[in-house]
Amino acid sequence: MRHQAILFRLVITTLSVAGLSAPAWAQVYPAAAPTARDTATNGSNLSDKQQFANPSVLGMGPSKGLIVRYERMPKFGVSSTAQVQGLSDFNTDATKNARLSIKGYIPAWNHPHLKVIVGLSYEREEFQFAKLPTNYELFDNIENKGLKSTAAQIAIIRPVDAVHWYLARVKGELSGDYTSSQLTKSDYSRFSAEAIYGWKRSPNFSWGVGFQYGYTFGRLSIYPAVVYNRTFNARWGIEALAPARVTLRYNASQNSLFYAGYTVDGYNYIVNLSRAPLTRKNADGSPDLSKATLSTLELRETEVKFRLRWERELLSFLWMGAEAGYRYNYAFDAFDRTNNDREKIIDSQFNGAPYASLELFITPPRKLLEKAGVRR
């Protein structure tokens, strides 16, 4: 029985610590939840050699293992401005913009001084436009097409001692309107990474600085990142990975949490122009023979969401997340991926619009965590 109890404790601790989580402050990787050996647990009876810091603080939401999310926006206006000769401007309405995402996190390695988490995800975005066909090259090529992103990532959380920690994440994905026969094409490949070094000042306060390298702002770029997790009292806290997202947290109860804040989301897709190839033209309307006919476009989409979110426990292992807010579209631009100049071809703007999403996610059951000595 003693061996069974030890095994049981190890399994539950692994589930909750090693990464079945994607907290609101940084959904790009799962953070370690506090355990009896972490400095987030108020374990004042532990010596410094026994304590290991991590980015989490008391009061953060439950760990997430499997996440299914659906997001939808109502009808909104779209305006496109040509950036090269031979194309026209265009205005229409998007009657549908929806996203489905499925994500899972698996603990691959769990030690007090090293935690490794593997993540897999699939996301799909769809558009529908009014007055089909639009006779506009960009919109006819993404109508009901399914802009997909299939990704795998690995995150490493390395507690150094009772105060210092660092983490690193690398992610590879295929992004675009690819089919199963096109999965080997390098054009669809994407890579992103981040690294952060942090300090655990108390069980209620952890922060860090580092960088992110990816498509959060539409195009591939590197920018600074600041992690700031702080719980002020039994009700209020803040979780941030600035500048990408900042969230204020309110703990209504042990099984109900509210969030308010903003997120910056970037998407980058390769679109195959099979339905309406696009030919670059001269000022007089004749074909520009110095440029090849465009076979693909690179879509760079950037949006800012101001959001309200509610997470609620439905069952001991199942939670619901309901979110609503306002989406401000910063850019939806198409770039030449066929010629070497990578010139912007079309500059599009979406009108601001409300959005809503519903999410279900699986967590380690609360009673099992309590038996294992893990505090959520």
Descriptive overview:
By secondary structure, the chain is mainly beta. It has a single domain (2-372), classed as Beta Barrel (Porin). Helix content is 8%, strand content 53%. It is built from 3 helices and 16 strands. It has helices at 2-17, 137-142, 366-372; strands at residues 66-73, 76-82, 90-111, 114-129, 147-159, 164-176, 189-202, 205-214, 221-231, 236-242, 245-253, 256-272, 296-313, 318-336, 344-350, 353-362. The protein has a 16-stranded antiparallel sheet that branches. Helix 1 (2-17) packs across helix 3 (366-372). The longest helix has 16 residues, at 2-17.
Keywords:
single chain, 376 residues, mainly beta, Porin, 16-stranded antiparallel sheet, elongated
Oligomer: single chain
Q: Which range best describes the helical content: under 10%, 10-25%, 25-40%, 40-55%, 55-70% or over 70%?
A: under 10%
Indicate how many domains the architecture comprises.
Answer: 1
Number of helices: 3
Beta strand count: 16
Terminal Cα span: 26 Å
So, CATH architecture? Beta Barrel
Protein structure class: mainly beta
Indicate the CATH topology. Porin
- Strand residue content: over 45%
Q: How would a crystallographer describe the biggest sheet?
A: 16 strands, antiparallel
Unreliable sequence segments: 1-49, 372-376
> What is the H-and-E element order?
HEEEEHEEEEEEEEEEEEH
Report the mean per-residue pLDDT as an integer.
Answer: 82
CATH class designation:
Mainly Beta
Shape, per Cα inertia axes: elongated
Q: What's the gyration radius in Å?
A: 23 Å
Quick take:
With 376 residues, the chain is mainly beta. It has a single domain, classed as Beta Barrel (Porin), CATH 2.40.160. It contains three helices and 16 strands.
